[in-house]
Every structure is written in C-alpha cells, then in structure tokens.
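re: that chain from earlier
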Amino acid sequence: MGMTMVQKVLARAIGQAHVNVGDVVEPAVRTAMSHENGALVINQFLEVYKDTGLEPKVWDPSKIVLIFDHRVPAESSKTATNHKKIREFAAKQGIPNLHDIRGDEGGICHQILPENGYVHPGTVLVGTDSHTTSHGALGSFAFGIGATEMAAVWALGRVLNVEVPGTIKVNVTGEFPRHVLPKDLILHLIGRLTAEGANFKVIEFHGPTIKKMSTSGRLVICNMTVEAGATSGIVPPDEETVRYLREEAGLPGPFDIFGPDADAVYDQVIDIDVAKLTPQIACPHTVDNVKPIAAVAGTKVQQIVIGSCTNGRLDDLAVAAGILRGRKVARGTRMLVFPASARIYQQAMEKGYLLDFMQAGAVVMNPGCGPCLGVHQGALGDGEVALATTNRNFKGRMGNPNAEVYLCSPAVAAASAVTGVITDPTKGE
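^ sequence. v structure.
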C-alpha cells in the first residue's frame, strides 16, 4: 500500500521505509520555531533539566529559530521583558537565528521562515504557533505544537508521540477569474469542510492549478488549513518549490524532492474548479461561515486590514495597490497595511506600492501581527466592522468581542476600502 506525502516525510524522519496511518512515531525535526511565546518554552525547557545536575543545552542551536513578531515593537513592559529573556537565552545557548525587532531582517514568523531558507522540503518543521501549517507550501510536514512539546524538541531534536495522520486530497483545476485569488480557494474549501471537517488530518493539494500557483499562493492555502481543523496542509514539492528555494530563499540545494505514491490511500478526495469561484467572504464569527461575496456586498466597514502571515506578501500588496492607485480610501473607513516582512516592506517601497497606499489614505505599518492578534495596532471599537485579509474572525480576535470581522482576499479588501462597503472587485472595473 502506497503512502501519502506526510507518511513519506515521517517515514524518512524516523529512518524507516514505511509508516501506517495511526502509527505513533517520534520524528527528527529539521527546524523548530518560536516567537514571543519562546519565553514560555524557555521556562519549560529549564524545567526539563531541573534537579538533574545537567547543564541545560539545546540539541542543535542552528535548527532553532526565534522570531519577534506578535507584539512588535513591545506594547508593554511585560512583553519587553519577555523579549529580553529570549535574547539572553539565545546568546547563552549560541542560537544564531534570532530575528529581532529590526527594519532589515524582521517580520512575521511564517514569512521569515520560508524567505530565509529555514523550510526544507521532505522534512519535519514545528512551531509554537497554529499557523505553522503554512510551511507545507514548500513540501515540509509543518505543524504547531505547545510550549511543553517544544521544550522536549529543544532537548531531544524530536517530536514525541506523533500519530501519523490520515490525509484529505484536494484536486484543484481551472483558471482563476480576474480578482479571484488563492485566498478565495481556501475560504471556499473551509466552508465546504467546516471548522472541524479536517480534524487531525492533513490536507494535500494537487492539480494543474496548484502546479501553476506561486509559492506565495501555496503559503496562503496551507496557512489556513488549520481553520478546517487540519494538523497541516502540504503541497508536494515541484519545480516551483526548487525555484523559490534557490531564487528567493537563497538555498543552493540539492533538495529532496518527492511526492506521494500513486497508490496512496486518502480518507477523502475533494475536487474544486476555481473557474467557477467568485470572491469568498468568511462572515462573523467563524472562519467556516463562508459566503459568496454577493451575499454580503454592501455591508458597511469601518476598518480594512491588508497584511498578515496569510496575505502580506509582495503579490498581495501588488494586487491591492493596483486597485487603489489613483483612488482614495472612503471617508469613515480606516485602512491599515502591514507587509509580512522587512524584505517585503522594502520591495514594496521600491516598487511604489507603499506610496500608492499612503496617497490613497492608508496607514502603512511595520511588519508584525498586531492588528490580526488584536493586542495592539488597530483594535476595533464597539459595534465596528472590520474586513481583513487575515486568517481568523472569532469574537475578540481583533481586540474587541463587541466588533465583527469579515475575512477576504486583498482584491476584495482594496476594492472595499474605496467604497467603504464590502465590494466585489470583479464587477465594474
């Protein structure tokens, strides 16, 4: 019996020829990432060594990546102190991969990892963040774990007690209509599966549309697989993967490129023709409450947010800037733009996108998770409505349980910023 992509990755990570769904394994980890919650991991890691007489020492400093992104710059003394704690730990342990609050190398963890060459196809990547699923876009089995689990990874270099998941295969065909984007594809899929439809499973993407999709688009769809309950999403690596790793991540190779077996067994197979899609909207207060834009068009919005680990990449900003160029954000509507990394910020500046945003009336912010997380930078007022390219819309997600959040693509966000109401970018332009 053949193996799915993730079965193959796990088999290699434990040095065996085959694993079955349901097996419990302890795979070797290629990359272990934490952001500000690294302070919690440090506490748990030190606890592992308590009363052992052994000096606390991570298994491989070069494979640990620490990234400040959720609360940058620090919004409180508590956060600033946690940042300090992580810096000191990284220095003591000799961890070289610390992405601090800097305008030349900072950004959101799920963009920093791929663009800096920390994601390797055919390997296991773990992070103390649920959207670690993003990195399946480059053929890695990437998934989120808790602080205690990560402490064990730091000590041992392996993830303990991983049950080999079943896999849902998604075949994607067709050409995207103008202003219909990968975000619309994944919202549509989540709406079909529901928030629990892929619980403890992996979503594996296939088809000619995926083959032609950029790594940026693949990151979008893998990022949001967790919103259907999935352990991870994954795209079998191909020529686009190699191109990205060489040209954008700066890795020379060689790369371990492989895919699932032709006779792999899947729990479910779903077919999607993107040519039939219209822009999709996730309505309050769950990500799986997905409707075609026609069902909610005209809804007034007070805040537009473009950015995040989901849609803050250069092509996302290009789409939004193209729609906004020469236009103005509607009075009574605020627009916030936060690129996913310092590199993307600089590229967008060089291409004039940031000027387009500012001249339209948008506020351009530093790369980070602030508005999406709802901790700082753009909290909503009581009764306000936000339209965002982010990945979650539960009550309080953007800082106020008395507000409403709709999720959409960058094209929808930009078109709606001009009108002040949810607007279909495929019409009238």
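DSSP finds 15 helices and 18 strands in the chain.
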